[in-house]
Specification:
By secondary structure, the protein is α/β, with parallel strands linked by helices. It is about 30% helix and about 25% strand. It binds NADPH dihydro-nicotinamide-adenine-dinucleotide phosphate and ligand LJPVP2WV. Ligand LJPVP2WV binds next to loops. GO terms for molecular function: D-xylose 1-dehydrogenase (NADP+) activity; nucleotide binding.
Length: about 375
């Protein structure tokens, strides 16, 4: 499928013709018949020789059966344990409410399954660290258990091109960075995203993308959160919008605003510009911007605008950049992360962009999310 605007938007649900499967393809089971799994796993797996979606488990067996039949999945299970006990399943995809991530990841690891785990990895950094510890037991090491937090966007070539530009000095010495990720509430206030008991809160849902993008681009950890304002609460302790400022090493000041409570009309008034996800890195020589950095496969623009245009030469790293980077065949972020996950399990060569998210990194990302809650005066998720 050529990577034009229509195919890019349709691609998640209408991937190209299925490819033949490799003999050692990873047989993945979906733990939960979740809304995101067609886009994150079922579709991309069709186009990957290295992955077979072999089963789906739901709390209600009838739901699992209907989901399996709809998506052409050969096996279904009533309850998650049943799938974890099936030796035909090599790996599980966990897309449960955030508050259930750690519990089921630990159970999956103990059952000897690899885990592709939706973001955020857990309710809090302590739980994330418990997942890391579970992969470091002798049994898990012997089974070479792989656990990947599915920050799919960080596997896309557009993000890597942006980071390479910053590393090459395209904006000079970085002094600030920001993320904006604001939408209307497309899920409704009763969604799992806004239930404290399920690990809800916009800082868990979208703040985790902000933390990960800032940490990825700056190659560093936040030293402290200097302000955190839960501008809108959906209910007590459950943030619908969060604005935070963070200090990174070397005097880099970062900020983010994430929201899912802005009224549609506010986006109409801003010409939809305000709804465009935006990542910006500013330095003494210029500003790098990457729009739609969470789903760059749909559309995005990567620009570097020099602070001054007077000193530009042909080989000057600070020259203007205005690019799109769709990578091979316009594949989705989810395709890239699923491919990397399967390659890691099989010990195959790391595919381009040769990137991996170690669990240690996931623990630090969750720490970033937790620090923002602490500064905001809201309970860290998972606290009674
Ligand atoms: N990487 C990405 O782009 C995205 C990631 N996500 C992440 O994926 C996860 C799931 O999101 P999404 O697909 O929207 O979620 P869903 O609302 O589809 O829920 C996922 C599963 O969780 C179970 N579940 C739902 N409600 C409850 C409840 N009240 N108590 C216990 N279990 C429940 C259900 O399992 P069952 O089928 O067994 O009933 C359901 O299938 C979240 O962590 C989210 O952050 C979500 C969207 C995009
Ligand atoms: O990619 C995403 O966009 C919408 C969010 O609510 C979701 O959880 C997230 O992963």
């Amino acid at each position: 499928m050529p990577p034009n605007i229509f195919s890019r938007i349709l691609w998640p649900d209408a991937p190209p013709a299925p490819v033949p499967k490799a003999a050692d393809a990873v047989r993945v089971g979906l733990l939960g018949a979740s809304r995101i799994s067609p886009r994150a796993v079922i579709g991309p797996a069709k186009a990957l020789a290295s992955v077979i979606v072999h089963g789906v488990a739901a709390r209600d067996g009838k739901k699992a059966e209907a989901f399996a039949k709809k998506h052409g999945i050969p096996k279904w299970y009533t309850g998650y344990e049943a799938m974890l006990n099936d030796p035909e399943i090599d790996a599980v995809y966990i897309a449960l409410p955030n508050g259930h991530h750690a519990e089921w990841t630990l159970k999956a690891i103990h059952a000897g399954k690899h885990v592709l785990l939706e973001k955020p990895s857990a309710s809090n950094a302590t739980e994330s660290a418990a997942i890391l510890a579970a992969t470091q037991t002798q049994d898990a090491k012997n089974a070479r258990i792989v656990v990947l937090e599915n920050f799919h966007n960080l596997f896309h070539p557009a993000l890597h091109r942006a980071r390479d530009l910053v590393r090459a000095g395209a904006v000079g010495n970085v002094h600030s960075a920001s993320v904006r990720l604001c939408f209307p509430n497309i899920f409704g206030k009763d969604d799992i995203r806004f239930d404290y008991a399920l690990g809800g809160g916009i800082n868990m849902d979208l703040g985790t993308y902000a933390c990960s993008a800032l940490r990825f681009m700056l190659d560093a950890e936040p030293l402290r959160v200097t302000s955190a304002t839960p501008t809108t609460l959906v209910r007590p302790d459950v943030d619908g919008e969060m604005a935070a400022t963070l200090d990174f090493p070397d005097g880099v000041a970062a900020s983010y605003v994430v929201s899912m409570v802005r009224p549609w009309i506010s986006f109409v008034c801003s010409g939809l510009e305000g709804m465009k996800p935006m990542l910006e890195i500013k330095g003494d020589k210029g500003t790098l911007s990457l729009s739609v950095f969470v789903l760059p496969q749909l559309l995005h623009k990567l620009t570097v605008v020099p602070t001054t245009t007077t000193t530009i030469t042909a080989d000057d790293a600070t020259q203007h950049v205005a690019e799109t980077v769709y990578g091979e065949g316009g594949n989705t972020t989810y395709w890239y992360s699923l491919r990397a996950f399967a390659a890691r399990i099989r010990g195959a060569e790391e595919p381009e962009p040769q990137y991996w998210i170690p669990l240690e990194w996931s623990v630090k990302n969750q720490r970033c999310v937790d620090m923002v809650y602490e500064k905001a005066g809201l309970r860290v998720r998972g606290e009674a």
